[in-house]
Amino acid sequence: MVNPLWLLAFFLPFVLGIGQAPTISFTNGALQLAGSSTPATILVSSDDWPGVSRAATDLSGDFGRVTGKNLTIAASAASGPAIIVGTIGKSKLIDSLISSGKIEVSKINGKWESFQSQVVANPVSGVEKALVVAGSDKRGTIYGIYDISEQIGVSPWYWFADVAVSPQSSIYALDTVKIQGPPSVKYRGIFLNDEQPALTNWVKEKYGGVGYVSGFYVRVFELLLRLRANYLWPTMWDSMFCLDDPKNQQLADTYGIVMGTSHTEPLMRSTKEQEKYVSGSWDWASNKAKVVSFLTDGAKRAKPYESLFTMGMRGSGDTGSTSLTAKSLEDVIKSQQSILSSTINTNLSAIPQMWCLYKEVGGYYQKGMKVPDDITLLWSDDNNGNMQRLPIPSELGREAGAGVYYHFDYVGDPRNYKWINTISLEKTWEQMHLTYERGARQIWIVNVGDLKPLEVPISHFLDMAYDMTLYGSPKSTQTWLLQWATREFGSSVATAAASVMDRYGIYANRRKYELLNQDIYSIVNYDEGDTVLKQWEVLVSDAQAVYDSLSAAAQPGFFELVLHPCKAGYIMHQLYIATAKNNLYAGQKRVSAATEGAKAVTAYKADSALATTYHKLLGGKWNHMMDQVHIGYTSWQQPSANSMPGQKYPAASTSSQPGIAVDGGSSTYVLPSINPYSPKSRWVDIFSTSNSTSTFTITSDAWVIATPSAGTLKSPGDTSDQRVQISIDWSKAPAGTSTSKIDIVAGTTKVSASLSVQNLKVPSSFSGFVESDKTISIEAEHFTTSTTSSSAAYQVIPGYGKTLSGVSLFPINIPTQNPPDSPKLAYDIYVFTATTASITIYLGPSLNTDSSRPLAYAIAIDDSAPTIVKYVPVTELGTLPSTWSETVKNAAAKSTSKLAVGEGKHVLSLWALEPGVVFTKIVVDLGGVRTSYLGPPES
Q1: 725-757: per-residue pLDDT in tens?
Q2: Confidence category of residue 5, pLDDT binned at 50, 70, 90
Q3: What is the mean pLDDT of residues 388-400?
Q4: Burial per residue of 264-290, b for 16 or more beta-carbon CB atoms within 10 angstroms, e otherwise
Q5: Which residue in 922, 915, 885, 888 sits closest to 805, CA to CA?
Q6: Which residues is 135 bridged to in the sheet?
Q7: Least C-beta-crowded within 10 Å: which of 33, 118, 167, 432?
């Protein structure tokens, strides 16, 4: 199969700015900016925004990073090339260019956060040519400045992820007019949350132990602006943004960041402030006057600065309130708007406000609470990346629109996940595409925990928020990954690096690391544990190969963004799969239980050693960022420290005879059946149960091939166990179904295993999926046919789900579909076992975002009437369906239907009845499906 990333690489032009129209070249262009005897001067009017002047200083430094020489910044230039940057209506330089007709800005003037850049001849006296960047407003200009920085090769993550810069001897501006903006989503940002222990310990070490001060925050502000974001919810648990450092709020405004507070912190007052400065309890019913006074002070403090005010109220410390009702919450918001009107602006529509319908808060809205139209409704996911609600048609006309609060990190049920990146970019795309098309375009804010280990999903999320028009296709994530890898590590390794991260997203998303244990992946069925471990092993090998090919300067960034998470994930799977084998083998009294136990101990130590390597990187720059506990969870909350999973060891012996175990784990030594369409072999394990030497032999029918058929077990040592592969010479096997007895003699142990050999044939004309071991397993994208309608069609989402991909119906604004005439996926299958089949459909873990249109699909065999399956129960807003916990743990929904099938060819048909239904896998159980996490491998 051709790797789609290679195809993308072939057609993708060289890029450093992700998704950006190029305006910079390193070989030639209309204007040389660096590399000549007279490098460009950056011209900025003294009357422009301070944030623009500050960003211009960054641009000067960025040229220095790339060429070795910073550019000079001035208000005017006597001669030579120039880069002129400024804001329409704020910069005399830009306004003079407009009035003289040298630039025409009607396409951006008055627009939100827009800019244009172009080479202009004779822009000012003494300057023959200049690259002119004109912004519609403060951030429009700043984004235009950082657009140059990104295109000359300075990643937004140059500091926070140590992405290296590739030196260039010359830099040119292209003769093109670039017009960009407004962004797709108005407010785009991150929430620094659950920041203890990693980020808090790091900040304490690096910033003098005085908390989250401006020295830290200005780094975050700069990062956000380079990522074309504009909005921040600051840390909340043991900090007070506005009070810990008096410069924080003012500097955010200077830089150009719109400050907010979390969903539980109204009117710019933090949780810790609630605890310290509210006189009396944080309770509207009993202490309204004091709470109003407290909130009024927050509004007054924020008045000079650009803010987006959180409205409403919850209980203290991110909990539900026991006294609030829908009616009283209406009064809360009415009082809060009165505060804003009296302290900031009587025109409330001019004040950005949002109300987050998080957890129980949604229940108030469901019960009929009225929310003023000038407040944005901020819909929340389930804390695990599945949107709970999105705008319905009656809400689309609201003045302040809608937005979303999303999660890449969380503390709570069913399990914390806050160690490292486990985010599926494809799933993020699917949910954000749905969000955008459903009209939630005012605010996108994502919980990023400690920020540092989540660099890749943060970049992806914010790039989509900035220009969603680039990401309309289900294949856009793969394009983005290749562009991202090109920017961060260079075109020579981009395809390999993107492939690694694409696979990492699938593997890490299968189950959060904190939810892993020794019981997840099967050791006896489908070779699942070994297969998963091999995937991780290959992934790390591929990542290491890229790392080894990079320059010393580029290796730290690659380690942080790619190699470390791959190694960390591999170690976690080594730990738990070795523990699973140890526990199983100890029960079987295998001597090799000790070997697997030693592997688990080695992996546990390797986890700690890898964290130490991370902490020592670059002289300890990121010490503490891997402090997060992640091994040994027994409930949703983290344990106090990592703890080694329990190992078991059989009693030592020198006389016990060898033992036998078979594929599938049967205690009666019945192997899973085999036919020409199943895996090529089954296995038998022969193992030492004592420190001794034994020989073994295997005999059976002439068509049964045992590899090896004889050998020696020796313990201690590497030959204490022998896995024997059992295959069939189909040219010799009798036609039809027969049972072969397999006689195993090991030492004095004698066992007769049995194997059902099914030498069955399907018609030569058949093409499709064939039953094996009373099972048919199908990846959803491998449909035989797919029908369309005039308004809808199925598309594949590469990399979605736990095994290969997802298939969903697009566009998402279609009405409810009506089978059998609506678009259909059809799969040709061939069955040998006539029975009532249990057909399990694996789906994305999405929730109902419109309770009047619950997620549903239809299924049928051949021409039978479609059976409609509503697999996500409808619940009231603010509550979650009964299936939610297991769905989230398993990173997939599953639904089973029972349908009769006879022997022979059939067509299994699926219909998605609502947009948002994502099929990933189909398993037809004809009586043989065995326990596993990922389901049987594809037939």
Answers
A1: 999 999 999 999 999 999 999 999 999 999 999
A2: very low
A3: 96
A4: bbbbbbbbbbbeebbeeebbbeebeeb
A5: 922
A6: 87, 115
A7: 167
pLDDT at 12 over 60: no
Query: Is there a contact between 198 and 628 (Cβ–Cβ < 8 Å)?
Result: yes
| 166 DSSP β-pair partners | none
- The total number of residues written for the chain in this structure: 939
Q: Evaluate the CA torsion angle 711, 714, 719, 725 in order and state its sign.
A: positive
Question: Does residue 930 carry a pLDDT above 90?
Answer: yes
Helix (H), strand (E) at residue 418: none
pLDDT digits (tens, 9 = 90+) for 522-579: 999 999 999 999 999 999 999 999 999 999 999 999 999 999 999 999 999 999 999 9
How buried is residue 2: exposed, middle or buried, by Cβ count under 10 Å (0-12/13-18/19+)? exposed
Q: Is the pTM of this model over 0.85?
A: yes
Alpha helices in 344-409 (DSSP H): 361-366
Task: Say how far apart CA 271 and CA 236 lie, in whole Å.
Answer: 6
**8 A C-beta contact, residue 917 and residue 809:** yes
Greatest CA separation for the chain: 101
Residue 194 confidence (pLDDT) above 90: no
DSSP letter string over 107-162? TTTT-TT-EEEEEEES-STT-SEEEEEEESSHHHHHHHHHHHHHHTT--TTTTTS-
| Cβ-based neighbours of 150, under 8 Å, separated by 6 or more | 16, 17, 18, 20, 156, 226, 487
The conformation of residue 52, written as its DSSP 8-state character, comes to H
Closest CA to 642 of 680, 614, 603, 616: 603
Two tokens at 641? Answer: 């420290």
Residue 449 clears pLDDT 90, i.e. is over it: yes
Contact at 8 Å (CB) between 489 and 16? no
| Residues 612-651: b if buried by 16+ CB within 10 A, e if exposed | eebbebeeeebbbbbbbbbbebeeeebeeebeebebeebe
CB burial of residue 750 (10 Å; 0-12, 13-18, 19+)? exposed
Dist CA 690 CA 772 (whole Å): 37
Q: What percent of the chain has pLDDT over 70?
A: 98
The predicted pLDDT at position 445 comes to 98
Burial class (CB in 10 A: 0-12, 13-18, 19+), 335: middle
Residue whose tokens read 């900016």? 33
